[in-house]
Amino acid sequence: MNLWSPWMDPASNSMRGVSPERYALAAGPEGEYFTLGEDDSIKIVRSARDAFTFSTHEKAVATARSMAAVLRRPVDVIKLL
């Protein structure tokens, strides 16, 4: 059986693979990020570890555009390493 996952490197001979891409939305220039609170409200956190993450760049950009329209300011998409 040959199973392939997007985070696995099919060209590699090892089974360790590569990390899946993750994106977060920056809340400002001070290293703050957006996340969802327990009541589904938008909160600001200081750590990328606590940020809400997206698994695709397209979804992160679409959400950033929607939030920018509501907040009336740019919202940056950050690729997490």
What does this structure look like?
19% of the residues lie in helices and 26% in strands. The two termini are 31 Å apart. The protein is α+β, with helices and mostly antiparallel strands and 81 residues long. The relative contact order is 0.22. It has one domain (22-80). The protein has a four-stranded antiparallel sheet, with helices on one face.
| Percent range for β-strand residues | 25-35%
The number of distinct helices, counting runs of at least 4 residues, comes to 1
Silhouette:
globular
Low-confidence parts: none
Q: Helical percent range?
A: 10-25%
Q: How many separate domains make up the residues?
A: 1
* Major sheet: 4 strands, antiparallel
Helix and strand succession? EEEHE
Mean model confidence by pLDDT: 84
Q: What is the radius of gyration?
A: 16 Å
Determine the N-to-C terminus distance. Answer: 31 Å
Give the neighbour order of strands across the main sheet.
3-2-1-4
- What's the total count of β strands? 4
Instruction: Find the structural class using helix and strand composition.
Output: alpha+beta
